Structures are given as structure tokens and as C-alpha cells.
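Here is one chain, start to finish.
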Amino acid sequence: MQEFMATSERRAELYWWFSTLFATELSDAQIAEYDSYDVRSFLKSLSTLDPMREAVAELNDAIARLLVRPDRQLELAADFAGLFLVDPKQGALPYESLYRGEAKLLMQAPMAEMQERLKRLGIDVSDKFKEPADHLAIELDLMGNLIIRAAEATTADERAQWLQEQEELLHQHLLGWFERFEQACRQADKFGFYGASARLLGVFLHMDANYLSLVKPAQAAD
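Its structure:
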């Protein structure tokens, strides 16, 4: 159980970190943290996982270029705006509705599905995110919350319920559209920081889906 708790905390931290990356522009103080021991150690620990090694190396290269980039905060904010705050026909907007179905429009069925999911779970993100409910940052933030709920569960049945919620969010939402978003992001991001971040997140989502497929039966057997 201690291992499950520790893994849950690490998974939630990863989801929340990625959520922050795609939620809003990074401040210069946040960018400076990428040159800190804590972040370097964090990325080094991820690189010990074989599926993540190449994606971490790509992100580390982008970080090294970012740290010496003139006017780095303004330039990265411009990258963010050019990718995520433009017309839907440009950049790579991080909304599920654009990547599911043929319409390729904002505020479609996936948004309504996510609104209903958040309402059912009693989670209000309006104070944190001023975005439609199918924004990538909101889906990632929700995964982090579901992971902590599973870790804090007091019974096996309750824990199984929250693990099931995680699996449904991954397969019914994130994994169903993220690959197309990742491709669009990598193609549109000329500097490469957000493209590399999207690549690493894509690897993580698939690893996490595999983890859930293994941990659910193990937790049920406890």
C-alpha cells in the first residue's frame, strides 16, 4: 500500500506539472526553475524510464536553448500564444472538441461530456481555469485529482471506483485525441519547447494507461 501511495503522489505531480505547462504562459521565475537542481533531478529521474528517455532528452535540449534565449519569457509567451491562443485553423489549440469527430469545431460534445463528468464528481475548476471543460489543462488537472482520491480512499471498493474513473478519463478522453494534438503542436512549434513537452506527455499517458491496467487488478486483490 505504501508503494501505491508513493506512486500515486508521483503520478499526480506529473499530471499537475503538465497541466501547468499547457494552462498559461510561464513566468520568468518559472522558466528559471528549469535551471534548478530540483527540476534537473526530476527530469533525470524520468529519463531512467526507457520509454521516456528520448523524449526527456529532446525536452532537455529545448530547455537548454530556452535558458539562454534572449527575452526568453516574452519569446516563450509568444510561442504559447501562437500555438494555443490563435484561430482554430492555426497553431494547435488544446481543446478535445477540435480533434474528435468531423466538425473540428470548439465547444462540441467532448466539452459537454467533460462538464457532466466534473459536475458528477463534484469538482469545480472555474476558479483555476477560465477555459472550456475539454481544455487539455483541465483534463490533466482532473486526472491528478482522481489519483489523489484513489490514494486517500479508505476501502478497496472506494479505491477501485477512483481507479476506474482514472481509466475512463484516459481512454474516453485524453488518449482519444492527444496524439493528434501532439502532432499538431510539434509541427507548429518552431522553437520546440512545447512540442517536446507534448511528446513527453504523450509517452507518459501511454505508460500511465499501462500502469492502470496492471494496478487495478492488484488493488482489487488486496
